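Summarise this fold before class:
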Amino acid sequence: MKRVLGAIRRADEKYHLIEEDDKICIGVSGGKDSLLLMRALKLYQRFSKTKFDVCAVMLDLGLKYQNTKPIYDYAEQIGIPFEVIPTEIGKVVFEYRAERSPCALCAKLRRGALNTAALARGCNKVALGHNREDVLETLLMSMLYEGRMNTFAPLTYLTRTGITVIRPMIFVPEKHCLSVAKQLELPVLPANCEVAGSTKREEAKNLIQYLCKIVPDADVKMMHAIVNTEKYGLWDRMRTKETQELEE
């Protein structure tokens, strides 16, 4: 847990994720990462010099039944207000729209519902539990399936709602999330989506694991390449004769 908190502190100090008097709504999926984020932010709140408050919200997508009582008990134990909000997102995605590739629409609807819930609770920030591998997987999916270099940012301000989305666990390796979640016996819920385990993200995850077999620290180096913006060497920084003349 000490390493998780250290990684959160690094992200906070580098990207100024948490500010004085923030009220942060943690988006809970029921998975290991978001449950770990609940525990970590509550601990971080104790020793951080910045005063902030936290609550947590979970969206019921209207798919399979999930017993959320263990999460209610867990939230009460660590002292975080927690609510489950019913939605019809599952029906919209799988019945009304019958999407072939449902993940993008589902993610969009979940983001909207979570931001609305955060605003209703007086929050100015939403915290998501994306870990280091999530960053890398998103980059690979963007490159391979969209033909562009892109991944989500540690901090994103949404002009329409005034909500700022933060991702405090971007420097936490997924293997540490798994280890700590098991050690703490977090009440992780099984995936309730019918396409779980057969998505493009799962393919990207497998690709990263394959790359790490060839280069053992490939994941570390890829993350360093994303963070080290001063040494980006893509074509938008290409020096031509004209740009050189302007610089001179």
Summary: The first helix runs from residue 2 to 15. The CA atoms of residues 237 and 243 lie 10 Å apart.
